[in-house]
TrEMBL record:
Organism superkingdom: Bacteria
The EC number(s) this enzyme carries: 4.3.2.7
Organism phylogeny: Bacteria, Pseudomonadati, Pseudomonadota, Gammaproteobacteria, Pseudomonadales
Keyword Methyltransferase: no
Protein name: glutathione-specific gamma-glutamylcyclotransferase
Keyword field: Lyase
Pfam families linked to this entry: ChaC
Length: 191
């Protein structure tokens, strides 16, 4: 599938008669909230794990030197914590452009901290998109993140802000925290 998902997303869900919908954010959507929302609540989804396995050519890297950003990988029993936003479907006109480098909107069940559930959407970059990079050793991922930068800023900032936001949410994400640790050692070696 082409890395540009704007057209694919346009036809994925029918929002006729829908005034608001829950959106689950697990990456930059937790800390970079450049869209209007009606309500915001910490939430989690089941069966998915966060991984820095998606290439970023348009935000945190370039086509020549892509950065790495998060996507979700299926993992039975896993719980991924993030932030849910109740938004007007109009918001997807903006977010589909922001998430265009490989992310598709999928339906998912969100669980809030009080145990209640709602149906919602989540952007996931699946492994059949052209920008998908997949697994690599943590040290290699950290080195790639340390050196990449794009129109939205340094890739390192994406990782550090996400790690901070996850700590504030009380989310345990060993993968993100291990990469944060590696990144700090890569950058202190350079200093
Ligand atoms: C998300 O945050 O939910 C999607 C991935 C990203 O934009 O970092």
């Amino acid at each position: 599938m082409s890395a540009n998902t704007i057209e694919h997303n346009r036809t994925r869900q029918n929002f006729d008669g829908v005034s608001s919908i829950w959106l689950f954010g697990y990456g930059s959507l937790i800390y970079k909230v450049d869209f209007p929302f009606l309500e915001r609540r910490p939430a989690s989804i089941r069966g998915w794990e966060r991984r820095f396995w998606q290439g970023s050519h348009d935000h945190r890297g370039t086509p020549e030197a892509p950065g790495r950003v998060v996507t979700l990988i299926q993992s039975p029993g896993a719980v991924c914590k993030g932030m849910a936003y109740r938004v007007s479907p109009k918001v997807f006109e903006h977010l589909d452009v922001r998430e265009k480098n490989g992310y598709l909107r999928f339906a998912t069940t969100l669980t809030f901290e009080d145990g209640s559930h709602r149906e919602g959407l989540v952007y996931i970059a699946t492994e059949d998109n052209e920008a998908f990079l997949g697994h690599a050793p943590d040290a290699d991922i950290a080195r790639q993140i340390a050196s990449a930068s794009g129109p939205s800023g340094p890739n390192a900032e994406y990782l550090l802000r996400l790690a901070d936001s996850l700590r504030k949410l009380g989310a345990d994400c060993p993968h993100t925290f291990a990469l944060e640790h590696q990144l700090r050692s890569v950058t202190s070696d350079k200093a």
